[in-house]
From TrEMBL:
This is SDR family oxidoreductase. Signal peptide: none annotated. InterPro entries: Ergot_Alk_Oxidoreductase, NAD(P)-bd_dom_sf, NmrA-like. It comes from Nocardia speluncae. Residues 4-226 form the NmrA-like domain.
Amino acid sequence: MNTPTILVTGATGTVGTALVPALQARGATVRAMTRNPGRVIPGVETVVADLRDPAAVTAALDGVDAVFLNSPSAPDAAALQIRFAELARDAGTNRLVLLSQYAARTDSPVRFLRWHAEVEAHVRKLGLDHTVLRPNLYLQALLAFAGTIARGWFAAPIGDAAVSAIDIRDIAETAAAVLTTSGHTGHTYTLTGPRAVTHAEIAAAIGTATGRSITFRDAPADRFAAALAGLPPWQRDGLVEDYAHYARGEAADVHTSVTDLTGHPARDITDFARDYAAAFTPAENAKDAP
Ligand SMILES: NC(=O)c1ccc[n+]([C@@H]2O[C@H](COP(=O)([O-])OP(=O)(O)OC[C@H]3O[C@@H](n4cnc5c(N)ncnc54)[C@H](OP(=O)(O)O)[C@@H]3O)[C@@H](O)[C@H]2O)c1
């Protein structure tokens, strides 16, 4: 594919923010989608569209070669993603790369994994060139705990189960490779870090990087849910389901897709902790976390 134009949905979000420069580094032309008309992303074309607005999405798809489909977690995320994929097919888009999640399954007890599996199944039936990326827990999701980590501790209902959590920079670089090289049609790539780590090991890594003592405390699910009381019930309950899945040891397998597709090993928790150390120090944040 020669200098393809790639539409990035969620371009201002967790993975999208890292994907835009990763695509630029590969020489792709990026069209970044945002709902915010005032948003400027340096060096790329921005297009204003809401996934809930099919006309705006169709306009955003005009003339693109490939799309990266990533929507925020929302109760209607599956429906929004399915409609986007249909609009991409109708627009003649050559390639769709779907951001799903590790262990997506239609019969999963975790609602987010069922929603992702529903989108995957629909995309497979559409007949467009597609690739599915299934990342495990984002290491950057630990930033939600920064408030208490800055005070020396964090808590979650996971016990001593290990998770092969992944840095979003590796998800972005892998997605950029899949979007700009051939041979990925119909593939589903599970994306993980280089090893599975317990939350106690995560605490130790952040402690080493910040030069402070950080303790991980196992927490009962109901106390974790109570700490998430500010979230809507679907999201709070979904996160509790996510953590129960991690606690059962179901998210500990290590896959080599990041290395295979980018040519470099996935970042370790120690890399993440070093690079984000400032976010976990008391001066840098003031917010509370579960
Ligand atoms: N967190 C994890 O550990 C994890 C692990 C595996 C998979 N995932 C999956 O990753 C996906 C993304 O989750 P995230 O929390 O990281 O979200 P995110 O990508 O940071 O989502 C926020 C982005 O979505 C855009 N957005 C919000 N509502 C929109 C709408 N109605 N139409 C178009 N764009 C909209 C926002 O852009 P603007 O405000 O600029 O419009 C923003 O860029 C989810 O599907 C989740 O299941 C997450």
